[in-house]
Amino acid sequence: MTNNNEFYQKGINITEIDTPSIIVDLDIAENNINKMQKFANENNVSMRPHSKTNKSPYWAKKQIKAGAIGICCAKLGEAEIMAENGIPEILIPNQIVGAKKINRLIQASKKSKIIIAVEDLSNVEELSKIFSENNQVLSVIIEVNVGMDRCGVELEEIVDFTKKIIDSPGLQFEGVMGYEGHTVNISDYEERVDNTTQAMNKLLNSANLLKKNGIEVNIVSACGTGTYNITGKIEGITELQCGSYIFMDGNYLKVFNDFTPALSLITTVISKRENRIVIDCGLKSVSNDQGLPDVIFPKGIKLISLSEEHCKCILETDVDIKIGDKVLVRPKHSDTTINLHENYYVHKNNKLEEVVPILGRGKFH
Ligand SMILES: Cc1ncc(COP(=O)(O)O)c(C=O)c1O
Prior knowledge:
Elements: E1 2-3, E2 6-7, E3 21-25, H1 26-42, E4 46-47, H2 57-66, E5 71-72, H3 76-84, E6 89-92, H4 99-109, E7 113-118, H5 121-133, E8 138-143, H6 155-166, E9 171-178, H7 189-212, E10 219-222, H8 228-231, E11 239-240, E12 263-273, E13 276-279, E14 294-297, E15 301-306, E16 311-315, E17 326-330, H9 334-338, E18 343-348, E19 351-357
Parallel strand pairs: 3-18, 4-11, 5-6, 6-7, 7-8, 8-9, 9-10, 10-11
Antiparallel strand pairs: 1-2, 3-12, 12-13, 12-17, 13-16, 14-17, 15-16, 18-19
Pyridoxal-5'-phosphate (PLP) binds near residues 184 and 242.
């Protein structure tokens, strides 16, 4: 098992991996995948998990094996990696704008079925022109603004917009999507249900209006991890895009503990002065966009600040720790931490199983 210039034997203790590194508990991640898929099966809804979290065909293949109909990719660059690595169907719930990217999309579409989101007429015209000139057909869904006020069309626009798509050569209209990102982190359950239901009503109203106008709507796609058990039970939603559940973000634990954290960062103590230690992770190896990471082992250590390569912690109790010892840290946000690393060190009971390259890291074009 190689990691650039290092070689690791399967079965070594995870503490022998050089630090800072991302480690993933395989049993926990697979349980998370299976639990979400079981929920979807029981509620007659398909899984199309978002791979913006894991950025790796290794995990995508496990999700498909468990029963997912395909995956989502945030960026074309990530979709290209997934297509090259044999993922048969990819939804990009995002806009692909500009001839340069659309031409790349043509190439990727030769390897996998790719569906993208649209919400603007000039973008639709450009996609239609380039795809039809290349004698190819691109499947599109319309992104509806369900209250997040990010991208997406409003109800009043949708019928005319859909008719323009249907009349555009090189495009195949497949349905609608709406991401309720403004409700996924609401910690109060009743409030989360109310806000999510309102958001999904906007999406369903759009789908129903199209159907009333004689337009076939095959896909109604939505959902994040925090709303899986709300959106996933709403009649009319055909597929769920949840992604973070696979490793269960530190921040999502404030919402519920339905899934178990699988990912952490193993680090080494490089300095110790009285009740202060420094560990060898920093902003270049762990993100803090959703708050400072938590120390999960050993107990009694509090992380207080991150600079580029240093992480300062205080010892809240009399912790028996010395330079060279390992400290396990859990990021609040997996996605942005994973994007900083080349490999996952996947383990079972702390014994190394596999070194898995994060092929989609940095593929944000
Ligand atoms: C469009 C879209 N769908 C699905 C998700 C998945 O959300 P989560 O990571 O909360 O499961 C996201 C997350 O940002 C998203 O942007």
